[in-house]
Design goal:
Keywords: Endonuclease, Hydrolase, Nuclease, Nucleotidyltransferase, RNA-directed DNA polymerase, Transferase
Number of helices: 15
CATH superfamily of the largest domain: Ribonuclease H-like superfamily/Ribonuclease H
Protein name: Integrase catalytic domain-containing protein
InterPro entries: Chromo-like_dom_sf, DNA/RNA_pol_sf, Integrase_cat-core, Integrase_H2C2, Retrovirus_Pol_polyprotein, RNaseH-like_sf, RNaseH_sf, RT_RNaseH
Strand content: 15-25%
CATH architecture of the largest domain: 2-Layer Sandwich
Pfam family, one: Integrase_H2C2
Distance between the termini: 67 Å
Structural class: alpha/beta
Strand order of the largest sheet: 10-9-8-11-12
Number of strands: 19
CATH class of the largest domain: Alpha Beta
Helix content: 25-40%
GO molecular function: endonuclease activity; hydrolase activity; nucleic acid binding; RNA-directed DNA polymerase activity
Largest sheet: 5 strands, mixed
Radius of gyration: 42 Å
Number of domains: 5
Length: 539
């Protein structure tokens, strides 16, 4: 500061003596010392030409220089301001209507040790240093909402802050009824709904199920296996594709059960079997249990091929006929016999049977009679097997019922960009949609969205979750979905555009707001990509 003052008022000090006062006593002898620091030389050079004297003055006496930093504080005249949060006043108000709190206030005021673990401080009751809350229900909900919905997630630490009788039950009920949690958290409960089984056919090859096994290495220009299973005899055919096969083996069936493969849901497939009078029953999206029979056959076939051709995986087609014979001649507990015997009426021939000459020849009438008896035995065995499976499956399931007017959430698979890049919020998308208030309204939406029949409504019980808590504002409609239950992605509006450099060339990008998403979830996409994927979109 002294050097700065000399520069500022140099014209005053040029011809007069100067006294420099400082609270650093060592500077008084700076002219007599041996200087070793470069900063000391620089300061003395700036003082050359002045007639000055350095005097030492204590800091507490140097009031002019330290006027601001040494201002005396008069504690007796300083006011004390205490800001009390509004919720503290609400806690105190909750004691007014609570008889237990009034009793605690009276006793603790007179005898602080009358109630163990309870203390009274500044009009607030504390239980083991935790703030005691009265019977004000609105205040409890406010506290739970603030802590449960906060970003840090302090709900699990609420027991360290406050206390009231029955707090554990209140917290559990509040978390269960939280609308945000109900829409975004998985349901960790036993499998909803009892097992609903398909009806037993009356004869062979009238009700079949089929599926594809894909992802195989190419073997003789074929890389897909079509698995066809008769639901009555459990007899199966394993057909490598592409193939010239037709319905020459068993004729046209009455009912075909399949999954929602694009081939089975295509217009040409639907139109063909509609013209042939064959009913098509499609399994529910993301619910392979609907056709568990074919899924189990697929598993058996994959295990067989894995064991037989793991060293030369491209030769799987040569093993397919043996795999089909192995499966159809294996014993099935649901039939109490093999699919071969259920199909043809006699056990599969063994290697040694070609030398047996004493086997009696049955007449045609006896063969027909045996076949009729065998069909009835097969139906009885299938019914027993279904009852046994249902009994075991229902042990880990809960029956779920919904009445008209119940508010429910519907689980839909999150959308996926198949043509565009993966959306940033795919993993964070809500698991459930709703709530929907009217059961009839939900059935109407499902029928329109999935083309369901009444018999298939039961399958959707596993996708429903009952709304807990007070009634919320019902959703007006479901998001746009396809036949698989996957949410469709389509541009809804163009919010902005920009020009960015890419590979030394300008690229036009659009800020797209997507269907089913708010404007805050809009993303920048290349205009050329949007025009290619969504040709009907005209911003």
């Amino acid at each position: 500061m002294a050097i700065y003052a000399l520069k500022k008022w140099k014209h005053y000090f040029a011809s007069s003596s100067l006294i420099i006062r400082t609270d650093q006593q060592s500077l008084k002898y700076i002219q007599e010392q041996r200087l070793v620091e470069g900063i000391q030389h620089k300061l003395l050079i700036k003082l050359l030409g002045y007639n000055y004297t350095i005097e030492y003055k204590k800091g507490k006496e140097n009031k002019a220089a330290d006027a601001l930093s040494r201002t005396p504080l008069h504690q007796s005249v300083l006011p004390i301001t205490v800001i009390t949060p509004t919720w503290i006043q609400e806690v105190q108000n909750s004691y007014i209507t609570d008889e237990r709190c009034q009793q605690l206030l009276t006793k603790l005021t007179v005898a602080p040790s009358s109630f163990p673990n309870y203390t009274l401080r500044n009009g607030l009751i504390r239980y083991k240093v935790k703030l005691f809350i009265g019977t004000a229900k609105d205040l409890k909900i406010q506290i739970l909402s603030t802590l449960h919905a906060s970003a840090p997630g302090r709900a699990f630490r609420i027991k360290l802050l406050v206390y009231w009788p029955g707090m554990k039950q209140d917290i559990a009920a509040f978390v269960k009824q939280c609308p945000v949690c109900q829409k975004n958290k998985s349901e960790n409960t036993p499998y909803p709904g009892l097992l609903q089984q398909l009806p037993i056919p009356d004869m062979a090859w009238t009700h079949i199920s089929m599926d594809f096994i894909e992802g195989l290495p190419t073997s003789n220009s074929k890389n897909v296996i079509l698995v066809v299973v008769d639901r009555f005899t459990k007899y199966a055919h394993f057909i490598p594709l592409s193939h010239p096969y037709t319905a020459q083996l068993h004729g046209l069936p009455k009912v075909i059960v399949t999954d929602r493969h694009p081939i089975f849901t295509s217009d040409i497939w639907q139109s063909l079997f509609r013209a042939l009078g064959v009913k098509l029953h499609l399994s529910t999206a993301y619910h392979p249990q609907t056709d568990g029979q074919t899924e189990r056959v697929n598993q058996c076939l994959e295990n067989y091929l894995r064991c037989m051709c793991f060293t030369s995986s491209k030769c799987w087609q040569h093993w397919l006929s043996l795999a089909e014979w192995w499966y159809n001649t294996s014993y099935h507990t649901s039939l109490n016999l093999t699919p071969f015997q259920a199909q043809y009426g006699f056990p599969p021939p063994m290697v040694s049977e070609d030398i047996c000459t004493d086997c009696p020849n049955l007449t045609v009438q006896e063969q027909l009679r045996n076949r009729q008896v065998a069909q009835q035995v097969i139906k009885d065995n299938l019914q027993k097997a279904q009852n046994r499976i249902k009994h075991q499956a229902d042990k880990n399931r809960q029956e779920r019922q919904f009445a008209v007017g119940d508010m429910v959430y519907l689980k839909i698979q999150p959308y996926r960009h198949t043509s565009l890049s993966s959306h940033r919020s795919l993993k964070l998308h809500s698991k459930y949609y709703g709530p929907f208030e009217s059961w009839n309204r939900l059935v109407e939406l499902l029928t329109r969205s999935y083309c369901l029949k009444v018999a298939h409504y039961m399958t959707f019980f596993i996708q429903l979750k009952k709304h807990l808590g007070p009634k919320a504002v019902p959703s007006a409609d479901l998001p746009l979905i396809d036949s698989k239950g996957t949410i469709k992605v389509a541009p809804a509006a163009l919010l902005d555009h920009r020009l960015i450099p890419r590979n030394n060339e300008p690229v036009v990008q659009w800020l797209i707001q997507w269907l089913n998403l708010p404007p805050s979830e809009a993303t920048w996409e290349d205009a050329s990509c949007i025009r290619k994927v969504f040709p009907s979109f005209h911003p």
